[in-house]
Write a structure and sequence with these properties.
Layout lengths: L1 E12 L2 H7 L1 H22 L2 E7 L2 E6 L2 H19 L10 E13 L2 E3 L1 H12 L5 E4 H7 L6 E8 L8 E7 L13 H14 L8 E4 L3 E2 L7 H16 L5 E2 L2 H4 L9 H8 L3 E10 L2 E10 L5 E10 L3 H16 L5 H7 L7 H14 L6 H18 L4 H16 L6 H18 L4 H12 L5 H14 L4 H13 L3 H14 L6 H14 L3 H14 L4 H13 L3 H14 L17 H13 L5
Parallel strand pairs: 4-6, 9-11, 9-12, 10-12
Antiparallel strand pairs: 1-3, 1-4, 2-3, 4-5, 6-8, 7-8, 12-13, 13-14
Helix pairs in contact: 1-2, 2-3, 7-10, 7-12, 12-13, 13-14, 14-15, 14-16, 15-16, 16-17, 16-18, 17-18, 18-19, 18-20, 19-20, 20-21, 20-22, 21-22, 22-23, 22-24
Length: about 600
């Protein structure tokens, strides 16, 4: 019996059974095309050899760990590119596992634990992801421009000892830029940077980074952040621009950044940087627009005026950015971007403070909303016509009800409805007022379609609102439209690819897959959310229900045990406030799945 050390790469198609059930002939043809045009040539190009083909996957052998990992990344990137032109329900996503171990050689075939572990690692990978053993990670972590995220030790079927597993992160390894002494390695790093960059949209794209607070007073940080918020809002109202959401832009706050890296990570062509100085009644805003591809400065200007003219200063910054990107832009488009939200500077100041609290990630979400709501209320007291303040206050009440942070959920929804109606009436051309007010109204049983219509109008006015796309996805879920829900939430993710609240977006996609009875995909997406927030109860409930519906009762019961540990009072009788669907049949299926997972009546 011949044995040898080999690198085994295992590939399979996520949700293969559901794809075949929905469209057997089409799925078979697409998979055959992917094998012929991508999988087989790339494996050969990276010096690998396929030794086993299955209906929904393959096994390949490599002599080099580096070649195997590079090949896996190339395959996943190739699949992503090919999926961009395919409808969501017909997309083929693969999972890849890689192991370095001893195998038994029998002719052209390979057997043994080295192969078995690779197959189990593949099962642990996300759709579109790569999972490797610790041996693989150690071999390549300083040789390739990728980092490896520990998944801990995993117990898998038919393997006695737990396996230390790592997820390949398709971002550059933080130390890779220092490895310039080896020409081959530098070339690989450069090639990988291009491979992992988000594709640029088909229109001019920009990210506005947090400005520096030059006031010398940390208490003025909210004012500086508010200026950036308003500039992002004004730019996003230009329909032909693609503008990254505030939540992703602000992940760079307080960091020294390389604009080229920002461009790659956010998938944009332009980056706006700057500073704000507020002293007494004077405000000075400086800005510089940089081409992220070349790091060339397109312009750098200073705007200065009195506090009473702060909206004019914001307009000047916005107009200068637009003028630099598109010199022939019609003046009408520039004027459309200008918006004066209130005549009361005091109300505006409280609104900015409310936004700063609402988006505070350092505190808990509950604390952030509790701090923000009275600030929005105060802004409304000072200016009863302030549409955006009404909308943000309505959103706060919705969150207080949805997450059980208030003792009287019915009162919260009543107040959200009142504020939402007011926001929609006052802000007929204000996208923020429309999408927040619309989301509040969608929580009222008879106003779901009305709320959806208001959010649609907000997105027609401002197609760059990541939060509006996300909430629109949730509303589509409630309308029983999982395909539209996934499409809208995916757009939210593209507009905010570094969002600290990504787990909420991922769980929204998980729910849409559950609604469409794609339980493997639903559990995979809920598990993605749980990696960021392990105790996120909505995602735990989706995971438990999905495993149960897919027949994985042991996994479902394990998740349910965790749910019961976090929320021991939860039972079928009090599920009403946490069931994420509206149609009776969907509610019944979700509840029955949780009961099957072990939730007591």
């Amino acid at each position: 019996m011949e044995r040898k050390l080999a690198v085994i790469l295992a590939v399979d198609v996520a949700g293969y059974s559901a794809l075949m059930e929905a469209d057997e002939a089409g799925t078979f043809e697409r998979l055959r095309s992917r094998r012929r045009d991508l999988l087989e040539p790339e494996i050969s190009k990276h010096h690998g050899r396929i030794f086993k083909l299955m209906g929904d996957g393959l096994l390949a052998e490599f002599g080099s760990v580096v070649d195997a990992v590079e090949c896996a990344v190339t395959l996943q990137r190739g699949m992503m590119e090919r999926n961009t032109s395919v409808s969501e329900e017909n997309r083929i996503e693969i999972r890849i596992g890689i192991n370095l171990g001893e195998v038994i050689v029998e002719g052209d075939d390979r057997y043994g634990e080295g192969v078995n572990v690779a197959a189990r690692l593949q099962e642990l990978a996300d759709p579109g992801g790569i999972c490797v053993s610790s041996k693989v990670s150690k071999e390549v972590e300083k040789k390739l421009a990728f980092s490896f995220e520990s998944m801990g030790e995993q117990r898998v079927k038919n393997i006695t000892e737990p396996i230390a597993c790592y997820r390949v992160s398709l971002r550059l390894h933080p130390t890779e830029t220092l490895l310039s002494s080896n020409d081959r390695q530098a070339s690989k790093a450069a090639t990988t940077e291009e491979a992992i960059a988000l594709a640029l949209p088909d229109k001019p794209s920009i990210a506005v980074l947090p400005f520096q607070n030059m006031s010398g007073d940390p208490e003025q940080e909210y004012f500086t952040d508010g200026m950036v918020e308003e500039i992002i809002t004004a730019l996003s109202r230009i329909r032909w621009l693609f503008v990254i959401a505030r939540n992703s832009s602000f992940t760079y706050k307080g960091r020294a950044v390389d604009v080229k890296q920002v461009g790659r990570e956010l998938g944009v062509r332009y980056v706006l940087e700057g500073s704000v100085r507020k002293a007494g009644n004077r405000v000075r805003i400086t800005g510089q627009l940089v081409d992220a591809a070349t790091a060339a400065h397109l312009w750098a200007e200073r705007f200065e005026g009195s506090l009473e003219n702060v909206f004019d200063l914001q307009d000047q910054v916005t107009t200068s950015v637009i003028g630099a990107i598109a010199p022939k832009l019609q003046q009408a488009e520039i004027e459309r971007a200008k918006r004066k939200p209130t005549d009361s500077l005091d109300a505006y100041d409280y609104y900015l403070r409310g936004l700063a609290s609402f988006y505070t990630i350092a505190s808990t979400r509950k604390d952030a909303v509790s701090e923000a709501l009275p600030l929005f209320d105060r802004a409304i007291e000072l200016d009863p016509e302030f549409a955006s303040a009404h909308g943000m206050a309505a959103w706060c009440h919705v969150l207080r009800r949805d997450y059980g942070w208030a003792s009287d959920g019915a009162r919260e929804i009543a107040e959200a409805e009142r504020l939402g109606r007011r926001a929609a009436r006052l802000g007929k051309d204000d996208p923020i007022a429309l999408f927040t007010g619309g989301f509040a109204l969608a929580h009222v049983a008879d106003h779901l379609d009305v709320g959806a219509g208001l959010i649609d109008r907000a997105l027609a006015l401002d197609p760059n609102l990541s939060a509006a796309w996300l909430l629109s996805g949730w509303v589509r879920l409630w309308q029983g439209k999982p395909g539209a829900a996934i499409e809208h939430i995916e757009q939210a993710i593209r507009l905010s690819p570094q969002d600290p609240l990504m787990f909420i977006m991922q769980n929204g996609i998980a729910l849409a897959h559950f609604l469409a009875c794609r339980y493997d995909d639903a559990s995979a997406w809920s598990e993605r959310a749980l990696r960021s927030y392990p105790d996120f109860l909505p995602a735990l409930r989706v995971a438990a229900a999905s495993h149960a519906c897919a027949g994985r009762l042991f996994a479902a019961q394990k998740v349910m045990a965790r749910i019961r540990q976090i929320d021991p009072k939860l039972q079928v009788a009090n599920l009403a406030d946490v069931v994420p669907f509206r149609a009776d049949k969907d509610i019944a299926r979700f509840i029955e799945a949780l009961r099957l997972a072990g939730l007591p009546d």
